[in-house]
Design goal:
By secondary structure, the protein is mostly helical. It is built from seven helices and two strands, in the order H-H-H-E-E-H-H-H-H. It folds into two domains: about 80 residues, Orthogonal Bundle (Arc Repressor Mutant, subunit A); about 100 residues, no CATH class. Helix 1 packs across helix 3.
Length: about 230
């Protein structure tokens, strides 16, 4: 009887840990828990109204997923973003969007080109309702899309792809500057290497968040059933 009760308690702890890990993963993906932010057992246990044991196990699950890392003298933190991984993502964008553009040039009909021209004019009208920064960004984007459309009309795949790649490179610079400003990118340039202390680079950024940490209301986890 004692062994049966012990087995049930172990199962309950494991189920509770899985529920907590899933909830924390959702909070990380929704940026409620930021890259580089410490995941402190005591605070998480208080948030979910459980003991530290399932929280400890939940953090190990997050580490196993690659979402969190254990850093010496800092403890478990949300894994910082990797500059190398960001670069790879933008390279993939170039591959996919370049292939899509070449396919579009082969299959574009006059009706498709007229539709694209109308969408660009519509975006230009919408830009008047944007703040100054938004207007400048949209104006630049519209000019690039006009160049892409012109290349489409002439069947010039190389010119169209060059403009698309220019836009992707610009997005990469702006997004990276924003993430560095927020301290979300690790010092290490390796995608799978140990994270360093997040950088706080100076310079222009596309957004400046107020740095506040949003927290959800405490969610009670039933330690007997593992339900939330």
């Amino acid at each position: 009887m004692g062994q049966t009760n012990l087995a049930h308690r172990i199962d309950a702890i494991q189920n509770t840990a899985e529920v907590i890990a899933q909830s924390l993963k959702e909070m990380i993906y929704e940026a409620e828990l930021k890259p580089g932010q410490p995941l402190i057992q005591e605070r998480i246990a208080e948030m979910f109204e459980v003991s530290r044991v399932p929280v400890r196990d939940a953090l190990q699950l997050l580490i196993g997923m690659g979402i969190a890392v254990n850093v010496p003298r800092r403890g478990v933190i949300v894994r910082p973003l990797s500059r190398a991984l960001l670069a790879e993502l933008f390279e993939i964008r170039k591959i996919l969007e370049g292939a899509a553009m070449r396919r579009a040039i082969r299959n574009a009909a006059p009706a498709h080109l007229r539709r694209l021209d109308g969408l660009i004019k519509q975006a230009r009208c919408a830009s008047t309702a944007m703040p100054a920064h938004g207007k400048a960004w949209i104006a630049t984007s519209i000019q690039r899309h006009k160049r892409v459309l012109a290349a489409l009309k002439h069947g010039d795949a190389e010119a169209a792809c060059a403009t698309i790649f220019e836009n992707i490179d610009s997005s990469e610079r702006e997004i990276t500057a924003c993430l560095r400003e927020m301290g979300w990118i690790e010092n290490s340039g390796e995608a799978d290497g140990p994270p360093g202390k997040p950088q706080h680079a100076r310079g222009d950024a596309v957004a400046r968040p107020d740095g506040r940490i949003e927290r959800r209301p405490a969610r009670r986890v039933n330690s007997r059933t593992g339900g939330a």
